[in-house]
Amino acid sequence: MTKILCVEDSDDNLFMLHRRLSRAGFEVKVATNGAEGVEWAKSYRPDLIVMDLRLPGIDGWEATRRLKAQPETKHIPIIVLTAETSKKSRDEAIAAGCDDFQLKPIDFGALVEKIHSLVGKSAES
Prior knowledge:
The chain is of the alpha/beta class. It has a single domain, classed as 3-Layer(aba) Sandwich (Rossmann fold), CATH 3.40.50. The protein contains five helices and five strands; from the N terminus they run E-H-E-H-E-H-E-H-E-H.
């Protein structure tokens, strides 16, 4: 079963993501801030991370940079899921190392397709 770590500070978004991803057949773990997300990624070893950008403490940009800088987590695909619509936010997320950038509100079908695509690519590497 594909393991996904969702890093999101909104309880409503976390509930929805956890419920819908679980129903889609994924094993889901949640973190509510960037520091917790980085730590969970090291121990949980997810197949993919869904990362919000606006997080308390360590934001999603910095959490992504830290994950991509560590040998044990650098291979994990990261999908940024955010309400940040600016080109600058997207460019900074890509520069930090995210593998895909999806806007909120969430197109769940597109998100699941992207998860399958990235997890498949990761498994081939």
